[in-house]
């Protein structure tokens, strides 16, 4: 009578299953033991990226005539470069980034896909006049430090940089 066994007469099939089970049990113990540490490590890695981002913001502040005041046009994320909730806003800080105030007046507030690069928002020497352009061809100006905006054009080619003359 012939014996029935694993394919090709190999006996390692049963051991593989046992070692997989052994591995799974080992992995489960490690995951339970070190899972919180792994999560913390991931958070710290994210924090390094956030710290680098904040360092870049601080470098931008230090180059300003008024390092406490700055304007930003936020987007969803680096991987998803569209305005938050489909509404264009310009945020301003007057205290070095501790708090931000959003200005929406005169900017598209629904189904807006305007993206403003960092160099596409400029502040004139008077620190009250601003110009901002988008990758979709929009151009806006503000005469009141970004509190309200006036649309100059929505028909330009994509704009990556805006500068006031003499700046």
Short overview:
The protein is of the alpha+beta class and 167 residues long.
Folded structure, characterized:
This protein folds into two domains: 12-61; 66-153, no CATH class. A hairpin with a 7-residue loop joins β6 (139-142) and β7. The protein has one helix spanning 12-63, and strands at 70-72, 90-93, 101-103, 121-123, 130-133, 139-142, 150-153. It contains one helix and seven strands. It has 167 residues and is of the alpha+beta class. The strands form two sheets. A four-stranded antiparallel β-sheet has the order 4-5-6-7, with no helix packed on it. It has a three-stranded antiparallel β-sheet with strand order 1-2-3, with no helix packed on it. The termini are far apart. The longest helix is centred in the N-terminal third of the chain and has 52 residues, at 12-63.
Show the helix and strand layout.
Blueprint lengths: L11 H52 L6 E3 L17 E4 L7 E3 L17 E3 L6 E4 L5 E4 L7 E4 L14
Antiparallel strand pairs: 1-2, 2-3, 4-5, 5-6, 6-7
List descriptors.
single chain, 167 residues, alpha+beta, 2 domains, four-stranded antiparallel β-sheet, three-stranded antiparallel β-sheet
């Amino acid at each position: 009578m012939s014996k029935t066994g694993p394919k090709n007469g190999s006996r390692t099939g049963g051991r593989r299953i046992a070692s997989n089970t052994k591995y799974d049990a080992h992995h489960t113990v490690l995951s339970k033991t070190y899972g919180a540490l792994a999560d913390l490590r991931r958070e710290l890695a994210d924090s390094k990226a956030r710290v680098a981002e904040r360092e870049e913001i601080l470098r931008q502040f230090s180059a300003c005539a008024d390092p406490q005041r700055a304007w930003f046009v936020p987007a969803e994320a680096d991987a998803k470069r569209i305005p938050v909730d489909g509404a264009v806003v310009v945020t301003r800080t007057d205290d070095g980034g501790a708090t931000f105030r959003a200005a929406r007046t005169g900017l598209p507030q629904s189904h807006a896909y305007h993206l403003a690069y960092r160099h596409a928002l400029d502040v004139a020497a008077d620190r009250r006049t601003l110009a901002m352009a988008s990758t979709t061809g929009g151009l806006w100006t503000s005469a009141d430090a970004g509190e309200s905006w006036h649309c100059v054009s929505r028909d330009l080619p994509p704009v990556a940089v805006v500068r006031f003359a003499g700046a």
